[in-house]
Amino acid sequence: MAGNKTFTMIKPDAVSAGNTGAITKMIEEAGFRIVAIKKTQLSPEKAGEFYAVHKARPFYKDLCSYMSSGAIIPMILEKDNAVEDFRKLIGATDPTKAADGTIRKLFAKSIEANAIHGSDSDENAAIEGSFFFSNTERF
Ligand code: ATP
Ligand code: MG
């Protein structure tokens, strides 16, 4: 059965552009409940750990410096079918290919600076959530 939690972070381009409020509003209006939220900044090493699955990709080094270039807003979200529904809400990785009305279509600047992250499986949602948060059960 599909899980009811996912993990997201608003990326440095969207935070520095002042889009945190607009994006969070879209997330809540789409029926997601915010279980945990904070503002923080990744070191290049921590960004590298978070995106370790992409280590072999040509864009890995740039991705780590971009993801550590400014503040991010990580969140744990709750909704039925959370992972799949959230990936639909954010749209394709490349904003030029993202569907109208998606967060990336509205706010992403490029395929790298694409405004927001969304976990791609229930398993990764749990791993990524615990990368940033602990003791979130009672919320
Ligand atoms: P995310 O994991 O951030 O939700 P995604 O699952 O849509 O994004 P991935 O393939 O997991 O896409 O890539 C992780 C991130 O790496 C992308 O969101 C983007 O910031 C960056 N990225 C992916 N492909 C490229 C590329 N071709 N060039 C530059 N950056 C890229
Ligand atoms: Mg991904």
Description:
This protein is α+β, with helices and mostly antiparallel strands. The protein has one domain (5-138): Alpha-Beta Plaits. Helix content is 40%, strand content 14%. The chain has 7 helices and 4 strands. It has helices at 12-16, 20-29, 44-50, 60-67, 82-90, 103-107, 122-132; strands at residues 5-10, 33-37, 73-78, 116-118. The chain has a 4-stranded antiparallel β-sheet with strand order 2-3-1-4. The longest helix has 11 residues, at 122-132. It is globular. Adenosine-5'-triphosphate binds next to strand 4.
Key features?
single chain, 139 residues, alpha+beta, Alpha-Beta Plaits, four-stranded antiparallel β-sheet, 7 helices, globular, binds adenosine-5'-triphosphate, binds magnesium ion
